[in-house]
User: What shape does this take?
Amino acid sequence: MSREPVLTKKDCVKGAIRWSLMAVTTFNYDTQLAPAVVFGIGPLLRKIYPDDDEYVEALNNHFKYFNTHPWVANLVFGATLALEDREGISACDAVQNIKVSLMGPLAGIGDTLIWTLLPTILGSIAGYMALEGNPVGVILWLLTNLFFIAVRTQLMWVGYKEGTKLITKFGNRIAQITDAASVLGLTVVGALAATVVTAKTSLVFQMGEISMPLGDLLDKILPSMISVLTVWALYKLIGRKGMKVTKIILIVIVFSMICSALGILA
Amino acid sequence: MTLSALQIILLILVAAEINLDRRGLSLTHARPAIVGFLCGLILGDMNSGLYIGGTFTLMSLGVAAIGGSSVPDYGVATIIACAFAKTTGQGPEVGITIGLPVGMLGVQMDVLYKICNSFIAQKAQKYANEKQFTKMYRILYLCPVMVAVFMSLPTAIALTAGAPLVQMILDVLPAWVTGGLSVAGKLLPGLGIAMLLHYMPAKKYFNYILIGFVMSAYLGMPVLGIALLGLALAYMFYIGNEQKATVGFAGGLEDE
Assistant: This one.
């Protein structure tokens, strides 16, 4: 079902600003940045869906887990908004798949270039100059950030335009593309499952003469075992009936305090 | 030398601003050098401000809050260090040793506001489903408020009650509380991934999860490299499907 697109450049700039101001302040362990997504592009969705029921469905779709680098996230929203603007509420599943599959790679690029490389370069300059009492490096850093703020206000519109092009080009292949995109997404998720939990055990395994740190032993059996086991246990917990995320969080906190007190995890 | 009430208020506002900014706008982004510059302006001691900011900047290079992880609040550490360098009159080095523990408290504060946000997010979604859209948007404003309050709290306490009190709180809290919160902060990011696995066709394409895991756990490949590999796999998958579709079509013709 195709419909006449309603979003303008002005809408997209507004959405980008709303998102940029909220972004990580809404971080929660349940859906991570999803509330900021709703806050940022909610008014744009309202424009696409004048019908209340469709609007609620679209909002619920965007209330699902989302986390990527907040600067480049605008590109993703632009692309998915373009899809929703053309296809309407039937695009919900495709929107979710595109978001999930793009967020991993974009986070990878953003975390490497923007969160690590950029502050390393600008920070080294500003830091060394500051030690000598020279604020020029600091001002340079502020100006650079200002420049990027200006760029970021445009990114949602870029995503929207490119997304539209992409969608007109591939049109009926969306299902295949989203399936391929979930392949990419799941590959990254597999990698994250190995690294996302950073807790370590300090227990030492002892048997007669032999003593070996339990962490090393576990890593010999399966690297990142604690991380994988945690993700697996949480996955199983979520699947259980009557298990709400807040309940899981409380369970994890109590569990962590017990483990910390017994010296099992640190 | 003591700080004026205005200076204390301004420093607390800086603590709130840099922590909001770090999570959104990204102008000052809580970078210690920039924070030190601001504190220098407020306290009228630019040299100490820049020196402390520069020191913390170099200390924190390579420490990035990636994917919502909780890291020491070097921005707040800078504020406290600048304030106490001024009040104790013992120079920036003393300020730095006082500032760092307060900055470390930022990790606990970070975990706390993120837990509060879960309740706000659920409430917002409930409002959405009840079609109370104005209320939904309004309650989301609580998230930045949480950040501002929680993240500026250590600064407010340290500046009004003095750093010894902050250290005392850290000492008085039993180890299992602080340690437990820190362990919870390390375990909880796994919840997001677990949620993700529920949304995605994880069972259907389990093999790709395994590939990503092996690359990361056994080969230690950075996530960008794995994403590129995933891109290659996705492309192969797409082309494979494409060929299947055309072969199926051609086969259909032959049958006739």
Summary: Chain A is about 70% helix and 5% strand. The radius of gyration of chain A is 22 Å. Chain A touches chain B through 117 residues (CB under 8 Å). Strands of chain A lie at 204-207, 210-213.
